[in-house]
């Protein structure tokens, strides 16, 4: 029988992006040697973004999204964060305070006293021709992030909810004209948001239409629309298209173990990042319905790191349950 005691990490972070890398930075500076299961597509949604002008500290035109993520990743690594560039495939989260959690990566199992969930959320896609090809070249998913690049240019917003209206109203401050395209006659947006949108002079509501293709080379130049009632088509000349049909939180791996709401966002306790599982915390777009900005994700990653540090300080480690393994050996 082996007497080797398995290593139990102080902190395992599942996911990357601003939340995951900020959590890694803070826990690394606290000498907790975090292990980050960052995924194959590390860096989150900012890896799909071009210029980022609204992240503090980057005057003179901002910074490219992938470069920002690379710098955040490297900064955490300087203080001792370790990375596994692979996907977490299963979680087994303890229900007991002081219990040990399991994070599976294929056949490999990593044990941790705390786990920070930072898997983020993905933009819902239309799935029409040109959407992927023109991503970052006219097609965007965040007007708050990218509106300034379309100053005095015609644009469209695709969507019918409050978020779409908020994006359209913001975008109208920059664009020469904003057309909100929605596939149904009735909008899902609240009456007050619709009234605000209708009051904007350079904003038009266009129904019942759905995009069927984005076109242009090398930049977006036109969008083809189909009338969902009579199948007629028309083409609009535009420079920018913003898809605002919602997000999909990447919480599936934790389903049934932490509480989620009807949309799949992880529920945390009050203003903390604590989930219903002791020693398990959640941060970033995985929990954020409202703001979904790089800076707010980074801020919640900081909160999760501090919550994890305080948990480790106040909660003794329980022995591993398997017979013959004895007490687990925590990371130094």
Give a short overview.
This protein is of the alpha/beta class. The protein is 21% helix and 26% strand.
Helix content: 10-25%
Tally of helical segments: 6
**Shape descriptor:** elongated
Count of distinct strands: 20
- Mean of residue pLDDT? 92
Relative strand content: 25-35%
- Rounded to an integer, what's the Rg over CA atoms? 23 Å
* Major beta-sheet overview: 8 strands, mixed
Helix and strand element order: EHEEEHEEEEEEHEHEHEEEEEEEHE
Structural class: alpha/beta
- Distance between the ends: 25 Å
> What ranges have pLDDT less than 50 throughout 5 or more consecutive residues?
322-328
Pfam family, one: Pyr_redox_2
Family: Belongs to the class-II pyridine nucleotide-disulfide oxidoreductase family.
EC number: 1.8.1.9
GO molecular function, one term: thioredoxin-disulfide reductase (NADPH) activity
Could you explain the architecture of this structure?
Residues 10-301 form the FAD/NAD(P)-binding domain. The protein is an alpha/beta fold. Helices cover 21% and strands 26% of the residues. Helix 1 (17-29) runs parallel beside helix 2 (65-78). It is elongated. The chain starts with 6 loop residues before the first strand and ends with a strand. The model is unreliable at 322-328 (pLDDT under 50).
């Amino acid at each position: 029988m082996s007497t080797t005691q398995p290593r139990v990490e102080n902190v395992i972070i599942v996911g990357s992006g601003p939340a995951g890398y900020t959590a890694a930075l803070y826990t690394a500076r606290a000498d907790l040697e975090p292990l980050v299961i960052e995924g194959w597509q590390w860096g989150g949604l900012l890896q799909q973004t071009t210029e980022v002008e609204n992240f503090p500290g980057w005057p003179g035109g901002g910074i490219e999204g992938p470069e920002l993520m690379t710098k955040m990743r490297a900064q955490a690594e300087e203080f001792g964060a370790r990375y596994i560039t692979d996907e977490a495939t299963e979680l087994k989260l303890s229900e007991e305070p002081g219990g040990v959690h399991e994070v599976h990566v294929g056949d490999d199992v990593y044990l941790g006293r705390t786990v920070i969930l930072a898997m983020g959320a993905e933009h819902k896609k239309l799935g029409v021709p040109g959407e992927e090809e023109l991503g970052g070249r006219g097609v965007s998913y965040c007007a708050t992030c990218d509106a300034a690049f379309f100053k005095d240019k015609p644009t469209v917003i695709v969507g019918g909810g409050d978020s779409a209206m908020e994006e359209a109203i913001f975008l109208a401050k920059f664009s020469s004209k904003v057309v909100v395209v929605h596939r149904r006659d009735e909008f899902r947006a609240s009456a007050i948001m619709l009234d605000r949108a209708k009051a904007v002079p350079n904003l038009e509501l266009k129904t019942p239409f759905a995009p069927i293709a984005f076109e242009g080379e090398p930049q977006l130049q036109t969008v083809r629309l189909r009338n969902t009632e009579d199948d007629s088509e028309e083409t609009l000349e535009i420079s920018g298209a913003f898809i605002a049909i919602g997000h999909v939180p990447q919480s599936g791996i934790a389903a049934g173990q932490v509480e989620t709401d009807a949309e799949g966002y992880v529920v945390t306790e009050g203003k903390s990042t604590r989930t219903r599982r002791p020693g398990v915390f959640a941060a970033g777009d995985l929990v954020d319905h409202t703001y979904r900005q790089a800076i707010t994700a980074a801020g919640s990653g900081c909160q999760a790191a501090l919550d994890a540090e305080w948990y480790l300080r106040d909660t003794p480690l329980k022995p591993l349950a398997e017979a013959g393994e004895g007490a687990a050996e925590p990371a130094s």
